[in-house]
């Protein structure tokens, strides 16, 4: 049984769940360089380790309130040479599954709840293409702007494994929970992995974004 299917069975039995996000860091990430993206389609040369390029499309999903979000769609040539969707294995997230896109949750922009960053770098010395995600929790007593612990998930671009996945996919290689609270997900990524703030950062100039 593949690791992904085994985890699905554990989730069904209630054995794996939120505690998985609190696992200690298992890998060493170095030479991390964010991939700049602009609204619309972005052609990224040598996106994959084998040299293939990709098109990362960034679109804003407006919904008329403070809960709009950015949506990311990744296309890359498959075995046939035709552009194919590169999916995200979010099975390890509570209630997750296999998704064709990934999205952030900026809220007002001053208190980003979920940050998504496409990054080149190395994992344990090996080159790779990654997506780093920081997801702030929610404390009913504090509300969305209040400080909360952050769950980090690092996805790595890998060949697809199981039936129902895509030819290439982003698979989680690390899940860890912050030991301190943050009011902005970008600040959490800066403190945890050294990823620089985006140009659009609009939170406070403090270590925790509060």
From TrEMBL:
Protein name stated in the entry: Secreted protein
UniProt keyword annotations, A-Z: Signal
Species annotation: Inquilinus limosus MP06
Signal sequence region: 1-21
